[in-house]
Design a protein that fits this description.
- The C terminus is likely disordered.
- The protein has 9 helices and 8 strands.
- It has a 4-stranded parallel sheet with strand order 3-4-5-6, covered by helices on one side.
- The protein has one domain.
- The radius of gyration is 19 Å and the shape is globular.
- By secondary structure, it is α/β, with parallel strands linked by helices.
- β7 and β8 form a beta hairpin.
Length: 194
Amino acid sequence: MEALRRGEECDDKPRDWTPYYRWLEPRLHVAGRWAVIPDMPGAPSQLNDSLLNDWPFGTKLGVPLWHMDGPLDRLARLCERYDTVALGWIGDPKREPVGCDRYQRRMDEVARLLGNRWPNLHMMRGIKVAFDYPFISADATSLAQNGHRYDSPIDTACGDQWRGRRAYADKLERRRPEHHRSYRRDRVIERETL
């Protein structure tokens, strides 16, 4: 993804995903777990669709990633075939982060496509917008990158070394009071939360 942001072309050389699949297999077969199916950011949809066929764990344990600059009809096809689909925002995280105006306009298009029957969608890097749309889950790299800053020797001494990180995760996942979007009858209705 970083190469694409620098303006470099998609590297469409074949990759051997076997080592990843071997690493993943013992971790994946636990109730409730799934993994994002490898893809190639910036590659044509057809190339990424061909990678879906190489996934060895089936449609329940594999989640394809729809890059939000891709065709909406691909999102519809993925939603028909897989139990869960991940959405990946393609804007520059510093200039156009998840939740920016351009993101919201694209999500309005997604909402028109899906209507009032949203499939299971996971938002990549989406903690900020997790409650703005009917996602089943969202993630963020922030906790992995910054969680250590919330560690405290006092918490460890008191027998709860993860207290600070849990508090940070709770802060990331907290609903924002300003407003949220509700989807009804193929249109967006914005309303203030009380």
